[in-house]
Amino acid sequence: MNENQPTLQQSISRQRKLLTQMLSDPLSRAALSCRKVWGNREQLNKTLTEILQTMPYCKFLYALDTNAIQISDNISHDKVINNDFGRDRSQRPYMNEVVPSSDFVLSPAYISLRAKRPSLTAIQIIRDVQGTALGFIGADFDLRALPLTRDLYEEPRQWTQIKGDPSIRGNVFSQSRIDSDMDRHIDVVLGVIEELMVDHGVFHAKLHFSSNRAVIWHYDDPYRYRLLNIDALTDPNICLAYPNTSYPTDASIPKNQVRTILDGLRQLRYMDETLYLRAGALNIFNGIISLTFSCDGSHYLPFDEFLNKEHAFWSSGIAN
Asked: Quick one: which of 66, 203, 216, 224 has the fewest CB in 10 Å?
């Protein structure tokens, strides 16, 4: 990943900025139109209907007084909906935001009460000619209908550590590793997984050492995983079920490092009889190794850091 790649919060902030630019101007103009008919339900409905035609992505428009009581009907592109006239919206997420000096605020995304869908609401203050607040215009948007750029967020390549179930962590020192069938056939299992990943199109594999299974994903059918039990994992003939496939040129993990990584998983499995690897996974495209230990703690780290035995991961203690 490029070091300049935006973080998750930066990606969200960028999308919110684009939405604010798209919505603030039409709602500002709407405020000027609505103040001329403020307090007249029928005229407000008519004005909001006209305004909505300039906002094709908006689901509902409505007017609220300064106490956030609705004084118009809900205006949609299809019809006027009168169920919410008089509704108190003061406790809704979009009304809890501090209105900035620009008189416009875009709420954080929230789950709508009725559709149960991620939504946004833009709130615009209505002021009279002296600048006194009369109330608000609310504009509701279904998140999936908004014309966002929606650049795919890319997970940062950095060591991430997640603590697991406290009940498991609290009892970790009262347990010890018991050899599984996979442990007893580890050389064959790792040889099969290496072959599948290097020459047969498997790009993601997760090995569950303690429960004798692996889950794999194949290039030609990436939306479906395949479950391999211990019989399949200890039978090299399983490779005949997958077509020969050239190792992808855009993989983050070099072909000659796949076996080295698998050997690293083996080392963590046998490193300690109390703190040991339960499951490990590698994805050759994003280059991330994921590890889950007997303490239920998990680590996610780039393969090159995983292979660097001087990295803090190896010296910090896998139970931390």
From this structure: 224
